[in-house]
Structure formats: C-alpha cells, structure tokens
Amino acid sequence: MARPTGRSMLVSVPISRTLATFAVALITATAALADAPARVVSVNLCTDQLALMLAAPGQLVSVSRLAHDPGSSVMVEAAKALPTNGSRAEEVYLLQPDLVLAGTFTDPATVQMLRKLGIKVALFAPATALSDVPDRLAQMGAALGRQQAATRLTADFDAALAGLDDAQTARPRAAIYYANGYSSGGRTLAGDILRAAGFDNVADDAGLDHGGTLPLEQLVLLAPDLIVTGRDYPGQARAEDVLAHPALRALPDTAMAGQLTDQDWICGTPAVLDAVREMRALRLRLEHAG
Amino acid sequence: MTLLSLSDLTVFRNDCPIVDGVTVRVLPGECVGLIGPNGAGKTTLLRAALGLLEARGYSSLAALPASERARAVAWMPQAREIAWPVSVEAVIALGRIPHLPRGARLRDADRAAVDAAIAHMELEPMRHRTATHLSGGEQARVLIARALAQETPLLLADEPIAGLDPAHQIATMQVFAGLARAGRSVIVSLHDLAQAARHCTRLLMLDRGQLVADGPPAQVLTADNVARVFGVTAFYRDTPQGVVFQPMELTK
Amino acid sequence: MRLAALLLVLVAALFAASLLSGPLPVSAWQALAALAGDDGTPLSVVMREIRLPRALLAVMIGASLGLSGAAMQGYLRNPLAEPGLIGVSGAAALGAVLALQTGLAAAFALALPLSALGMAVLAVLLILMLAGPRGASITLILAGIAISALAGALTSLVLNLSPNPFAAADIVFWMMGSLADRSFTHIWLALPFMLVGWALLAGLGRSLDALTLGEDAAQAMGVRLPRLRLALILGTAASVGAATAVAGAIGFVGLVVPHLLRPFVGGRPSALLWASALGGAAMVLAADIAVREVFPTRDLKLGVLMALVGAPLFLHLIYKTRKELP
Q1: How many C-beta atoms surround the C-beta of residue C280 within 10 A?
Q2: Could you say which of C209, C222, C269 has the minimum Cβ distance to residue B67?
Q3: Rounded to an integer, what distance in angstroms lies between the CA atom of residue B81 and that of residue B83?
C-alpha cells in the first residue's frame, strides 16, 4: 500500500489545501518553539478521537458532544472520562483552554470569536483518503507536542494497511448509498476504504468522484454487485426511505449490506482499518458465495 | 286536495316565539300573499313550513321525506343566489333534480319541463347566456323559471319582487296569479301591499309571529288592520282597472 | 364528453411521458419492452419499480387533489377553497409526521394514512366551522392561514425534536411535496383511502349543483345537507390525507385545475368534479415531469413548481373576489 508522499491534504479546493498546509506548518513551528499546551479542548468529532489517541494524560480537558455517541465515535469509552462541550465559543472559552482543536468545517464564527479572545485554534481538514490518516496523526502530534506517539501510531497503521492487501482475481463493483441518495466516490474517505478492501466503486462510473447524489434509477442501472447502505439512525426520516426502496431488492445479482458505514468510516483515524477489514471480509464471503 | 296544512306551527328563538301558533290550509288555485311588517316572521314561517327550521306544531310539508317534499313544493329563497357562471338553461334544469333517478341525466320529460319553463318566462333569447351576467330582474325571472321547472303543485316564494322595477314586479306577480288560475298554488311573501292587493286571491297578515288576518284582500287590508299592524293609514278603492291600494301616512 | 376524451388523452400522453422521463435517457421502445418483461434486468427494475409507481402516484395524487378542490369549492361556493391553502394538506402532513416520529407507522403501516386522515378531518371541520356555510372569502383565507401556520409549526417542531439527523431536512418535503423514489408500497398504502375518498366525493355532484342556488334552495330540492357535509369532510380528508401521507403537501392543484376547467364545463360543479380529477392528474404528471427534466440533479419539490403557477392565480382570484366583498 503505497501512499502519496508529501504533506498534501487531498482536499478538493486547492486554496484550502494551501491554507491547511500553511496551518500545519504554522502549528508545527509553534509546537517546536513553545511548550506543549496544557489545557486542550476539542470541538469536532474527528479531532476528539485523534486527540484521545495522542494526548498526554490530563492534557485534553473536554471533547465534543458527539464523542459520547457510540454510533459516531470509536472511542466512547475513553471519551466518557471527559466532559463534553457544545462546540460554542462561550462555553469553550470558559474552559480556559491553551489550544482548541476544530475541524475546517467548524462554524467560522466560533473559530473567529475564539481567536479574537486570544485562544489558539488548530484546524484539521476532514480526511478524504486513507493516506490522510498519517497526515492527521502527524498534525495532531505536532499540535499536542506528542510527535513521538504520532510516529508510533503511523507506523502501526501503515503496517496494518499493508497487511490487508491481498492478491485478487477480480474486483467486485460496489456502491455506498446513504440517505437522500448520496453516494461516496473514490476521492472520499469512504470510497478509499472501499478501494482498499478490494472493490471498484460504481459512483466513479457515474462521475461522482467526490461524492454526490446518485439517483436511484442510475444506481439500479449500474447494477453493482454490492450496495453498502448507511447506518439507520433512530427515529424516522423520509430521506432514509430510499435505502428501503423495493427496487434495490429487485436486482437479482446485487447483494445488500446494510449499516456497514458506521463510526469507523467517518473520521481519518486508524479506526478506518476496521472498516477496511470488515469490507474485505465481506468481499471474501461474496467471492465464496458466488 | 290540500296543498299545505299548518296547524299551530310555532318557532322559538331563545324562548321567544318568532312564529306563534299559525294554522293555515292552502288549496289548489290560490295565490296567497303573506304580508306583515319587518320582523313579523314571514320568512321564518315559510322556512318552518318547508321543514328547513326546527318547529313545534304540524306542517304537512315538513312531515314529508326530503325527496317527496321536493316534488310537492318549490322554494325560492329571498337571496337570489347563483354561485357559479352557469348558463340560464343549466340553472333552470336544476329544478329537475328532485325528479331525476339516482345518477340519471335529463330525460325527454325533463327537457320538456325546462323548455316549458323557459317559454313561460319568455327566456328563450337568453337561454344560453351566463346567468351571473344577467341583470337583477332577469336573474329573478330565471330563478322563477327554475322553480316552475320543478313542476310542483305549490310554490313558496320569499319576497320575489323586492328590488325589482315596476314592470318586473307586475310581470312577476302576473306569473304567480296565472299559475293560480291554472290550478297551482303560490304563497308569496311581500312588502308591497299594493301588489298584494291587486294580484293575490288571498292574504295572510302576520304580526309579531301571529296570524292576525286571513282572507281576500278586501277583508284583510281594512283600515283597522293596516293601522294596527303596519302603523299607517291607507287609501283603498276597487276600480274598473282593479284594486288600488296606497299607504298614506303614519298613524302616530 | 369531448372534454372528457381530451383530458383522458392528455393524461395518457403525460403518463407515457412520465414513464420516459428520468435522469437517464431510454428509448421508448426499450422502456416499453422493459416495462412489459419482468426479467430482472436493471432497466426493467427501473421501469417497474421506480418509474411506474411514480407515474401512477402522480395520477392518483393529482386526481385526489383536483377532485377535493372542486368538491370543496362547490360546497363553499368559493373558488378560493383548496385543500392546500385552507390548511387541510398541512394538517395531513402533521398527522403523517406524528405517525412516523412516534413509531406508530413502523408498528402498523396503516397508521400513516390513518393519522394523516385524522388530522385532515380536524382541519376540514375547523374550516367549515370558521368559514360558515357560505364560505365567505375573508374568513376562509384567514382560517386557512391560521391552520396552515399551526400545522406547519407543529410539523417543524416534531421533526426538529426527532433523534434522526435527517428529519429536520424533511420539513421541506412535508411542506412542498415530492414523488421522488416512491414505490408500490406507497401506492398500496394510499390507494384504499383514495378510493373511498373518490367514491364519497364523486357522489356529491348533484347536491353540489343544487347548492349553486344556496343552501335553502338546495335543501328544498331534496338535498340532505348533513349527509353532504359528512361525505365532503370524509371524502376530502381521505383523499388529501392519503395523498399527503405518501407525497407531502402539494398545494394549488385544487385551486388551479378547477379554475382552468370551470369555463369548459359550463360552470357546473358536478361536471367540474370528474374534469378536475382528470385535470389534476394531468397537472401533477406534468409538474413531476418538469421537476425531473428541467432540474434533473436538484430534487426540486413539486410544491415549488405548483406555487409558481398557482400563487399568481391565487392573487388574481383574491383581487376578483375582493370586489365582491362588502
């Protein structure tokens, strides 16, 4: 499993890539100069998990509310030890952090407000490929002053990923299908998980490399060998009806795998390996059955 | 053969009798004028007689099932309502609804009745015009034709000549009088005592819900009755051109 | 009769066009062959499981809305009476959302249309109570605004409180309506209620004709008003409730279609019933084709298109009736 070298972020817009690279460079520089931050607050699900993996004991003082949701977070047990925050500037400020960890999609007003109040905010771009995982680990290691721990985790990750590569005779065609008919293409984290597990992604055939709405009709006509649907959230939403449409079950040569895209698929952390393992096992089962 | 029989018909509104113990029989061939000052209970009496209002006492019409009643009496409410832009012919054809079997369209007999009503009211030239675009007087004629098409032995009309010009008033009353001569009966409420005196064969005088006089116009429109019930003096004379009645002055 | 034939041809043509419209172009011949053959090829699945139910639902929902609009207008003798505008559709949407979010619909599938029907009955009752027998325009419009606003607010509240992250985005669907990705499941859920509603409303023609002359005259012609009122309430609630339960609230169909067709049936409320049912079917089919052909990637809601056509007409009608008000 070779991964692209360099610090590329693989985000779609070049400007944000430049900015993110700049941010990483900046944080790396500051971390080298100053001492590691003593009180760190995370306001984003993905930074929650990266920080929980890398932070020194007592360094992380609060995580976002979603970190306690077992459907979204892989580190609920560790997160439960910490209080949650609602990701708003007011309550975050009152925690008196030295550093706030946020995503690039965190409300810009919140980020701006915190910076205005003199609090350092580190922004993490969402991962769009498996190769982003070591980058995020490195960025978080630098931000927390925990570079060694980050290097260790990266080595483990690379080794485990390489171990999942097997000699395949054919690559089955799969689709990832979420509520509202959203599908993830090859240039998304979920799509990359699918690729690493040995599948071709039909969303790429439909021109949805970065993800987008794949009309149900088009999905049926693409007739993939496997359809992976998103997790079924509690409560009802009309947006999820499409996942239960009879047309999906009417295709004789298409297997349905429901509720596979769960917490392992959301963030660019080493937990994505579990998603790759699960999908790979599924592929092997399909090959045996076929 | 009695076309309408009311006995002791009484309508209450908030413990107050609007119509108070009215007993009347109407036979074929009568043109009955229902007169009385505002609030005397004319409309209420007619609606109660039709069974459109809850009433005590007996009304031969109210006692009938709805479908049979619709073939015994036609009703022209005071409001000349035509809600949709339908043709004159279509409005008149509505009068055939009580005669149509469930789900049936107009049959030959129904068309004949509609044609007769149109001829009777001389509406042939405007048969295909839109009823809502006609003048008030023309609409009144269309609605009378509608009632005629119902081909009932009895017709009840609530102030059918209110708001019409003299020519239309006279023409309308002549139609009613003509129906009576042909053996059908009409009960018509009206404020114009002159028209009532000239065209009706019989008058019912209503005062505060009570029937205070019932008989030919000359016996009902006495100076005493008119003064007591309407509070006016009147000029009454039988002339070679018919009865002339003219209210003159307030008594007080 | 010429009108009936014309409308039937129009509905048939639009039905065929609806079957042929979608994100991927398919030749008419291929599509028909795929529709006929249940051979499990992807194209036949698309035609039989996605496009056919969608076109059928458009017909059913359009007919329901057109018929209910014509019937309500006939009863209230007011061209502004329309299930969407007077809040019946909004109330039905609230009923459907309640059935879904309480989990009732998951436990018992018929709870969805039943709950929509129940709320629609409440809304019609309220409207009839507030607007009075003659359905005066001003009270009708004001009552409609109030009921729509309340139903809309409660719908949003219920969806915002849902634990499902997608529920809040569903507000648009329930308020604007869409036929995207509906299936035969929805047809079987709605059809029985619609059939009952259609039967109740279709039988009202003669009574509504008689009502042209007012309640008193109609009653004297043998029309039994209490029965008429009951049939109207249940018929409207059943057809609009079922339509809304599966496709959200689609407004203005019952306003635009009877208005367009009234001159062609000589203004007669009875003839307007079936004409509006056919016209409604044609209109919803056409709108559903337009949302797919004009904005193929946008999942534009049907209600958006209907409002663009219907709202100006609504304003025009208000202007016209305003002159008749005292």
Answers
A1: 32
A2: C222
A3: 6
Q: Structural domain boundaries of chain C? A: 2-324
Amino acid at C317: L
Q: What is the mean pLDDT of residues A276-284?
A: 91
C312, burial (CB in 10 Å: exposed 0-12, middle 13-18, buried 19+): exposed
Give the dihedral of Cα atoms A85, A88, A94, A98; nearest 10 deg: 90
Residues 6+ apart with CB under 8 A from B121: B141, B142, B144, B145, B148, B175
Would you give the end-to-end CA distance of chain A in angstroms? 27
Classified by CATH at the fold level, domain C2-324 comes out as ABC transporter involved in vitamin B12 uptake, BtuC (1.10.3470)
Cα separation, C174 vs C166, whole angstroms:
13
Counting one residue from chain A and one from chain C, the pairs whose CB atoms sit within 8 A come to 92
Element (H, E) at A274: helix A272-289
- Three-class SS of residue B118? helix
Residues in chain C closer than 8 A to B86 (CB atoms):
212, 266-268
Check CB contact under 8 Å for C220 and B75.
yes
pLDDT at A258 over 80: no
Q: Give CA–CA dist B88/C205, Å, rounded.
A: 19
Tokens at A223, concatenated: 């007739």
The answer for residues whose C-beta is within 8 angstroms of residue A20's C-beta and 6 or more apart is A9, A11, A104, A123, A125
Q: Is it true that domain A173-289 has CATH number 3.40.50.700?
A: no
Model pTM? 0.87
Mean pLDDT of A154-162: 95
Q: How far apart are CA A63 and CA B184, in angstroms?
A: 93
Does residue C131 surpass a pLDDT of 60?
A: yes
Q: How far is CA B236 from CA B221, B245, B251, in A?
A: 8, 5, 16
Is C84:C254 a contact under the CB 8 Å cutoff? yes
Q: Hey, which CATH number is domain A14-161, 3.40.50.1980, 3.40.50.880, 1.10.1740.10, 1.10.3720.10?
A: 3.40.50.1980
Q: Do B91 and C212 touch (CB under 8 A)?
A: yes
pLDDT tens across C265-313, in order? 999 999 999 999 999 999 999 999 999 998 877 778 998 999 998 999 8
The torsion angle over the Cα atoms of residues B168, B173, B178 and B180, rounded to 10 degrees, is 150
Q: How many other CB atoms sit within 10 Å of the CB of residue C29?
A: 8
In contact, B28 and B185? CB cutoff 8 Å: yes
**Which residues, other chains included, contact A144 with Cβ-Cβ below 8 Å and sequence gap of 6+?**
A31, A36, A37, A40, A51, A54, A55, A56, A59, A99
- ipTM confidence score: 0.91
Report the residue of C181, C186, C293, C297 to disrupt the A interface, i.e. the one with the largest count of A CBs within 10 Å: C181
Beta bridge partners of A176: A228
Q: In this structure, what DSSP letter does residue A267 have?
A: S
> Is C134 a residue whose pLDDT tops 70?
no
Residue that wins the pLDDT comparison between B103 and C95: C95
Residues of A in contact with C106 (CB under 8 A): 236
Domains of chain B, each with CATH number or no CATH = 4-79+153-250 (3.40.50.300)
Between CA B152 and CA B139 the distance in angstroms is: 21
For range C228-237, the mean pLDDT: 93
Nearest Cα to C65, choosing from C224, C283, C263?
C283
Q: Buried b vs exposed e over A176-213: b needs ≥16 C-beta within 10 Å? A: bbbbbbbbbbbbbbbbbbbbbbbbbbbbbebebbebeb
Candidates C281, C304, C204, C255; CA nearest to C4 is C281
Token digits of residue A52: 């929980």
Q: With contacts defined as CB-CB under 8 Å, which chain A residues touch C105?
A: 236
CB C26 within 8 A of CB C244: no
